[in-house]
Amino acid sequence: xxxxxxxxxxxxxxxxxxxxxxxxxxxxxxxxxxxxxxxxxxxxxxxxxxxxxxxxxxxxxxxxxxxxxxxxxxxxxxxxxxxxxxxxxxxxxxxxxxxxxxxxxxxxxxxxxxxxxxxxxxxxxxxxxxxxxxxxxxxxxxxxxxxxxxxxxxxxxxxxxxxxxxxxxxxxxxxxxxxxxxxxxxxxxxxxxxxxxxxxxxxxxxxxxxxxxxxxxxxxxxxxxxxxxxxxxxxxxxxxxxxxxxxxxxxxxxxxxxxxxxxxxxxxxxxxxxxxxxxxxxxxxxxxxxxxxxxxxxxxxxxxxxxxxxxxxxxxxxxxxxxxxxxxxxxxxxxxxxxxxxxxxxxxxxxxxxxxxxxxxxxxxxxxxxxxxxxxxxxxxxxxxxxxxxxxxxxxxxxxxxxxxxxxxxxxxxxxxxxxxxxxxxxxxxxxxxxxxxxxxxxxxxxxxxxxxxxxxxxxxxxxxxxxxxxxxxxxxxxxxxxxxxxxxxxxxxxxxxxxxxxxxxxxxxxx
Length: 512
Ligand code: ADP
Ligand code: MG
Fold this sequence. Notes:
Strand content: 5-15%
Distance between the termini: 33 Å
Bound molecules: adenosine-5'-diphosphate, magnesium ion
Shape: elongated
Number of helices: 16
CATH superfamily of the largest domain: GroEL-like equatorial domain
Number of strands: 16
Largest sheet: 7 strands, mixed
Helix content: 40-55%
Number of domains: 2
Oligomer: single chain
């Protein structure tokens, strides 16, 4: 990808050619990962660490791109991921194919403005048709199951589907907190309904295991008095002075502990460090402490428990304390460290948490990605979106409709509307190809079946044939297809409009 263009190449190739080429290459990169038989990518970083995934958004996020045009496609993946939770690979493929179709039209002398107009007509027609394809009487299991097929996690689909539905029917995907802990089988993954799971351990082994009715103090400062070695200069005349200083330091620290205890604090959550003397005090007084929680974790705990984060002991008031019914560590024998459950949250602070595990870090990471997508689409189907048959059915149906619309358009725009229709076929074509079937033949048969009135005919990945009769085996939220279509068309048009790549002035060049 890095060699797709440099400053000198742009003198011999037009900006359109270079940009289209880049988008086609990016689409090629993710194409083989589409669908239930999609292959995984192994992404290696410069420290030798590897990610195994077939998630389109992850592939793009982790791949190093250098050309600025790639930003548009990475942005497309992000838009789809944040609005529809799934469908990124399909969106990138569609953008790539729209660009490829546009390139062919440009070679035939069709102007970019006409292509843009034709693509807009195509998008409008496709979306108009999509809403006629909605299905009723589906189950959330079917939705979650479709989202997980093809990922490694698909092998433990039944178990993960249950977790996914638990989460998606209770909270917004953005409020589901997820922790990854490798070292056990995928089916050891679990969800916690009324609390948050955090990747932290109590600071000191001697601390209590389990706290009921916990009152939580949250600090984003150190709870520590600097040691001599940490740049504090104190001059002592005698050894007794030094001892007295040391005692005083200890007493100061212990008074912090006593102050917290008197206030009724049972759990201390520190954003930074906590003095070992203080930690000892907490342990002896049946209190628990966790430290070095980063800002987002501190905020998560504060929100979930209704507490306020304060910046010094003196600032802490009783009403700043968070509260929950139970806090305890949880672990499996094969894990290298436990996680902490902050559970039984108040009614109005309900959260849902998921712990993803797998035999290796990579497997556990991929379970988390699969669940993340699946929870998103299940929530979408549960709350807002109609669903449609997947497996290429909506794209074939829309392609046929858009082709009909194209036939009514006068002028060269007709060719662009037709091209839009052809571009939609990239989804069933790629699904068939990834399953080892003749893609053209599969799509021809799908089109024939749709032509005969089967608006839900989708690809049989086992034999490249057609499945009809609406068996609800493969369904997905209409919103995923809608968002993908809109965003991919916008990205393709944005790329086609660029007619010049100019190196922008370095903002520091003239001291500006
Ligand atoms: P994306 O990032 O676009 O979601 P996926 O790799 O998840 O990419 O593939 C999604 C596509 O695979 C959708 O078109 C979906 O309908 C299709 N698909 C999923 N399961 C099946 C199946 N069992 N049979 C046919 N198509 C399927
Ligand atoms: Mg998907």
